[in-house]
């Protein structure tokens, strides 16, 4: 599964604290997306996480949990994504909560299923920015420096640029991607339709689509083909 991540171009991110009916969930899971990620910044519990996992498991799509709360960690996912918020204003979100989790549950952790993510939170108005006290926004030079810490110093496999609710600065995203040596660049934020998805896919390795699922499902589903189309076009050029 860890190797499969390098082939992911499109991922739907579902929030356990938001309602999604069965028909919509089926459409998401059978859309052709590479994976479904479950996670959220607030209101995530064990109960709503296990409920959403059980519903997604009716389909063959890979399902991963992005851990934001220790109380909501549920067994049975294909992979567990561990955010390290590089520009957090409080060390808890860089290493503090991680250390406490290992202290309490280290003997139970399936290490082979864990995947760390170097997070850069770039929308200061987002819930995740407020929770983590993120130092945001960042200019291109600052973002590149953080990304190189993740990529070259910490050797993290993923750098995740999170704009959470707003469209990002794609010039900055492109600058960050060019600085990476081995990490894969995930982009999330403001993807509402095929056009915004294509723009994001042109400057990142993996596009995460979240809010659009709940706001306009039809347009959200268009993002799959849009992102996969950019991959096909890039392959033909090479």
UniProtKB/TrEMBL annotation:
Q: In which pathway does it act?
A: Membrane lipid metabolism; glycerophospholipid metabolism
Q: Record-annotated residues binding sn-glycerol 1-phosphate?
A: 13, 160-165, 190, 210-211
EC code(s) of this entry: 2.5.1.n9
Gene3D superfamilies membership: FMN-linked oxidoreductases
Residues annotated to bind Mg(2+): 15, 41
The protein's enzyme class: transferase
Alphabetically ordered keywords of this record: Lipid biosynthesis, Lipid metabolism, Magnesium, Metal-binding, Phospholipid biosynthesis, Phospholipid metabolism, Transferase
Instruction: Extract the Pfam families matched here.
Output: PcrB
Q: Which cofactor does it need?
A: Mg(2+)
Cross-referenced InterPro entries, in alphabetical order?
GGGP/HepGP_synthase_I (IPR039074), GGGP/HepGP_synthase_sf (IPR038597), GGGP_HepGP_synthase (IPR008205)
Keyword Cell inner membrane attached: no
Q: Would the keyword Lipid biosynthesis turn up in this protein's UniProt record? A: yes
Q: Which molecular-function annotation in GO is an example for this chain? A: transferase activity
- Catalyzed reaction equations: sn-glycerol 1-phosphate + all-trans-heptaprenyl diphosphate = 3-heptaprenyl-sn-glycero-1-phosphate + diphosphate
Matching PANTHER family, A to Z? HEPTAPRENYLGLYCERYL PHOSPHATE SYNTHASE, PTHR40029
Among HAMAP family, the record links this protein to: GGGP_HepGP_synthase (MF_00112)
Role: Prenyltransferase that catalyzes in vivo the transfer of the heptaprenyl moiety of heptaprenyl pyrophosphate (HepPP; 35 carbon atoms) to the C3 hydroxyl of sn-glycerol-1-phosphate (G1P), producing heptaprenylglyceryl phosphate (HepGP). This reaction is an ether-bond-formation step in the biosynthesis of archaea-type G1P-based membrane lipids found in Bacillales.
Q: How does it associate, per the subunit comment? A: Homodimer.
- Family named by the database record: Belongs to the GGGP/HepGP synthase family. Group I subfamily.
Protein name, please? Heptaprenylglyceryl phosphate synthase
